[in-house]
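Input sequence (115 aa), recorded before submission:
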Amino acid sequence: VQLVESGGGSVQAGGSLKLACEASGYDFSRCGMAWGRQAPGKERELVSTIRRDGTTTYADSVKGRFTISRDNANNALYLQMNSLKTEDTALYYCAACGVSAFVFWGQGTQVTVSS
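Predicted structure, C-alpha cell format:
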C-alpha cells in the first residue's frame, strides 16, 4: 500500500489549499479514507473521513471550511481547505482502510498558515 500526499504549502490566514492523495496497492474503492493532521507538540487527530458510500465526517474545528472528496476511478482522495486559520498549521496525512481508525498512513504534507 502506498499513499502519497501533495498540495501542502504556506498560505496566509483566510487563504485556501487543496490537498491530494494518490493511493495504490489495494482496492481503493473498497476502503474508507481519511485525512489526519499533527501539529507540533500535539497528538495526531482525524480531520475528516469519507466512507465507501461517500458518507463524510468532519472534526468540529474544520466543519464548514474543509471538504473531503474521493475519485474512485483515479484512486485519489482530496481535501479542499478554505478560510484557513493559523491553528490549521500541521503535517497533514492521508489514511486508508478504516472508519474511525485507519490501517495505512502516508508520509504527510506540510501546511503552514501565517497571520
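Checked by second reader. The mean pLDDT is 96.
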